[in-house]
Amino acid sequence: MRYWRNGGRSFGVLGLGRSGRAAAELILSLSSEAIGLDEAPSAECDACSRVVTGTEPILDMLPSIDGLVISPGIDPASAIPAFAVEIGLPVIGEIELAYRNTNAPVLAVTGSNGKTTTAEWLGHVLRKAGLDAVVAGNTGYPFSSAVLDRADADLFVLEVSSYQLQTVDLFHPVGAAILNITPDHLQRHGGMENYREAKARVFMNMAASDILVLNGDDPGSIPLSGRTSGLELQFSVKRKVFNGACSDGEYVYSVLDGVYERVIRVGDISLPGIHNLSNALAVTCLAGKAGLTPERIAPGLADFPGVVHRIEHIRRLDGVNWVNDSKSTNPESLVAALESFSGGIVLIAGGKAKEVDYSILNTLLAEKVAAIILIGEAADRLKEAWSGSAPVHKEQGMEKAVARAREISVSGNTVLLSPACASFDQYSSFEERGDHFRSLVEALS
User: Fold this and answer.
1) What pLDDT shows up at residue 247?
2) Domains and their CATH numbers in the chain
3) At what angle do helices 274-289 and 115-128 cross, to 10 degrees?
4) The pTM is what?
């Protein structure tokens, strides 16, 4: 661990996006040199002593540095990290770097869907109960930045992606939740089993005193059951559990060794929908690991306002609700959004498609959706998959999609941006996409 904490070394940081720049700042604070590495010629890094761009120049300079930190967007199997490993250079990710430079305990949240909401909700519950909890990681606030900004925090709540987990080594959360595992990022991972194994790295260093929280209702997570060295908890909205949290539809219960304690009425939970009830159960499990009793957990479950870009209510105009769910980047997240409303949805979807079968949504679309507006690279594919489930309109870009939604929606409808696709065909991130949608909706009159 000291290797990445002692000063006087020279470390390369590969990928100078948000997390890469944060890693460089943390390295600089350790009195070591950070050298920025990026294949894009326009890359910049204020904390770096210099920036090297282009594949060949980076490969040429790797033997001269002491270690390499790679950003989540960099595939560890790609040419530059692979060469670094070949020449014996220590290689870690930004999450690992930050973990090695803090002594505060970590609670981690991963999964295909619901990570951001659950991590932020857990942080809210902990702070409501008086703990100094900092939420970071895949939420957009890099763990390295959090370690620099909040060294005295009681604990860190981390949202961690499968990409980030590929490059951990000593990373050891005292509690971790895997919310669900459904097909996602399969091009990078090479298949469902590799993707599941990447998620499993969140608990690979657990001790007997740690907890792993699994979704007992999720078929993709069940193969991980029985593999942790810690205590396994499960959460379920469908059945009783022996250790973990569950609901009978009226109450949320915290359960330890078969003993049930009421936490909160389901109707008092601030976020609607069965998926949010499931998230609340995961929060309950992890908050218990932080030492909170059910009485201290309940207030934060009752008044959490939700997360930007995740079923975010923007405004009501002429009887029509406008909702931003730009964080929906796969079919499962669209399912969760659709199930949050009773019907009458005017859906805006599309972007860069995932390698999944979108036709599985047809029955739910027919039940919930009054009209579909498609944008982006995936428009033709989605139109073919969803034909017959609801009237379909194709539009060129978000501006025309919002204008069309305004034209065809009537009082009682909900206009829902829930793309079920990545944003990278038209936007740099789902945040940029959601911000654009919000600005257009706020400008309507």
Assistant:
1) 98
2) 9-89 (3.40.50.720), 97-303 (3.40.1190.10), 312-442 (3.90.190.20)
3) 50
4) 0.85
